[in-house]
Design goal:
Layout (H helix, E strand, L loop, with lengths): L26 H10 L13 E6 L5 H9 L3 E7 L2 H13 L5 E5 L2 H4 L13 E6 L8 H14 E12 L5 H13 L8 H16 L7 H5 L2 H11 L2 H8 L9 H9 L4 E5 L14 H7 L3 H12 L3 E7 L7 H8 L3 E4 L3 H5 L2 H4 L1 E4 L2 E4 L2 H13 L2 E2 H7 L4 H13 L3 E3 L3 H22 L6 E4 L4 E4 L2 H11 L6 H12 L15 H25 L14 H7 L8
The structure holds S-adenosylmethionine.
């Protein structure tokens, strides 16, 4: 019998992809990334209605969290994997969301000349495609870009993240070797193939002290292969087991985007938006280069870039300096980490990591900014008066603090409209995390984003809510972990096997959760603030007291 062409076009479809939320996809994050580059963002202010399209939305987790956080937005998700679509729709229904549609469709069908897009063509403020473009075959990638371009409204933003060279050069050897064997692996049996291939490649690298010519040329591969050992098989399949897997140099990707009128604006990784932060001599080389694609290539080569989060537009609208300032002034920020945590040891905490190296923040400059934001959510306008920085310098500082997770965008009154439905979603997610479902984040309405929340944290949270105290708390959590088949992992990635060490680990996480994460979740509206337990008043106490024995 002739073989039917597969609906997946060589994309790995025999298991589901992982569920995760990415802050770079939030409208607030994308708007700021555009503003930083002097481009008019799609929304004028927080709370304004918008249309958002997620191409290749996977299990829909990210989209559901976004739809819950931004009730004023209309969210569309597209994926051709029926399990992904079914999961996303079920989660959205359980969360009671009305502003989201997830459709089972193929980019190739949507890009066909006679196709009618299920959302207003040319009407999307934001189109995102996270982790897809370089995992699919060339025709599918072209269709993805065509659909993105056809969906965007003028000056709308397209976020496209992908694997790039030269950072993937070494690991492309792993993928080549794996591709020889993977088609033969029966569904569900791919796990050992990854490990066998990693082991084989390890041997080809030779001894660490006496590497083979291959090992000497790719010294980083030894470390990179270690990550294969710890990564979940679903992730490894999603990463490597696609026929179309082909990282792209940035210049090639820009050329392909240009064919669809999509032009590069900047990066959704904020630290990469400021050329002045680059170390010399790279900075001078880049600043001398007038062609934008050549600049980006120089940076990628010098930093061995492996992953890009590009922000593109269909039609640029450049702001004048005055318009830029006017747009920036009302943007407001909230503290995510306590100010003391930032300033207690500034040489550690004000140490920002970027692809080109580390940036040491000056406590004298950051102190007043952090103080102002920790006292109350602060707009850029008020921060300009509170500190001695120019708008340009302040924007860089805020961008680095945002990227380090120290602050978030303040959604202002728009957050209140989302709070009830976000709390309902978080309740649902917490219940599922506690049962071992691999969700890893909870939503924070006040900042329109999410924070990591592990199964261990979710179980400790349950115990704390049930008012359990030590030693009962850690013993119960350990029991629940066993029931859900979850292993405790130590700081060095090792599985913690001994009961006393397991209990210690639980107690350590419980203390952090109680002191920082739960207060953060409450302050930013992710969970309801518990009503303080009233001290029993005199009258209730006397009412509840056991009757006094009759006087003799
Ligand atoms: C690596 S996953 C990323 C999922 C999601 N964006 C995320 O970051 O969690 C890529 C997704 O693209 C979908 N996909 C691949 N080819 C597609 C096509 N031709 N049409 C529609 N969806 C496709 C896959 O089913 C998968 O869910």
């Amino acid at each position: 019998m002739a073989q039917q062409p597969s609906w997946d076009h060589g994309y790995h479809s025999s298991s589901s992809y992982t569920s995760a939320f990415y802050r770079e996809l939030t409208p607030s994050w994308l708007d700021f990334a555009a503003l930083v580059k002097g481009q008019l963002p799609p929304r004028e202010s927080e709370g304004e209605p918008f249309v958002f399209l997620d191409l290749g939305c996977g299990t829909g987790f990210s989209l559901v969290v976004l739809a819950s956080l931004y009730p004023e937005g209309r969210f569309y998700g597209v994926d051709f994997h029926p399990d992904h679509v079914a999961h996303g729709l079920d989660l959205a229904r359980r969360a009671g969301l009305k502003n989201i549609e997830i459709l089972e469709a193929d980019f190739l069908e949507l890009a066909a000349p006679d196709a009618v897009l299920p959302w207003a063509a040319g009407g999307c403020h934001y189109v995102v495609a996270h982790g897809i473009a370089t995992w699919v075959t060339a025709p599918v990638q072209a269709a993805l870009l065509a659909v993105a371009a056809a969906s965007l409204r003028p000056a709308g933003l397209f976020y496209c993240s992908y694997n790039t060279y030269p950072g993937w050069l070494a690991r492309s050897c792993f993928q080549q070797l794996l591709a020889l064997d993977l088609p033969a692996a029966h569904p569900g049996g791919s796990g050992p193939r990854f490990h066998d291939t990693a082991r084989l490649l390890h041997q080809l690298l030779g001894d660490e002290a006496q590497p083979s010519p291959f090992g000497a040329s790719y010294p980083s591969l030894r470390r990179e292969l270690q990550s294969v050992e710890f990564a979940p098989v679903d992730y490894l399949c999603g990463e490597y087991a696609n026929e179309g897997w082909a990282p792209l140099y940035v210049t090639e990707m820009f050329a392909r985007c240009k064919a669809h009128k999509l032009s590069f604006l900047g990066s959704a990784t904020y630290s990469e938006s400021f050329l002045e932060l680059l170390p010399p001599p790279l900075r001078d080389l880049v600043l001398q280069e007038p062609r934008i694609e050549a600049r980006e290539l120089l940076i990628d080569l010098a930093t061995n870039k492996a992953f890009r989060r590009d922000l593109l537009t269909k039609g640029q609208v450049r702001l004048t300096h005055q318009e830029w300032l006017e747009r920036l002034r009302p943007v407001s920020f909230q503290l995510l980490q306590p100010q003391e945590a930032w300033l207690a040891n500034p040489s550690d905490t004000l140490h920002f990591r970027a692809c080109f190296g580390e940036i040491q923040g000056d406590p004298q400059a950051y102190g007043p900014v952090l103080s102002a934001i920790s006292a109350a959510p602060s707009s850029l306008h008020s921060l300009l008066s509170a500190c001695q920085q120019s708008p340009g310098e302040l924007v860089v500082m805020l961008s680095l603090l945002l990227e380090a997770g120290g602050i978030g965008f303040d959604r202002g009154p728009a957050a209140a409209k989302a709070a009830a439905q976000v709390q309902r979603l978080n309740q649902l997610l917490l219940g599922r995390i506690q049962e071992g479902r691999s969700y890893t984040q909870l939503a924070l309405p006040a900042v329109g984003s999410a924070i990591p929340f592990s199964v261990l944290e979710a179980l400790i949270y349950r115990a704390q809510r049930e008012q359990l105290e030590e030693p009962m708390l850690s013993s119960c959590v350990l029991l629940w972990l066993k029931e859900t088949n979850v292993q405790l992992i130590g700081d060095g990635h090792q599985v913690i096997l001994e009961a006393p060490a397991q209990l210690l680990k639980i107690q350590e996480i419980a203390a952090i959760l109680k002191a920082t994460k739960v207060p953060l979740l409450e302050r930013l509206g992710g969970v309801p603030t518990p009503t303080p337990r009233l001290k029993a008043s005199r009258s209730t106490r006397s009412r509840n007291r056991a009757p006094a024995p009759p006087e003799s």
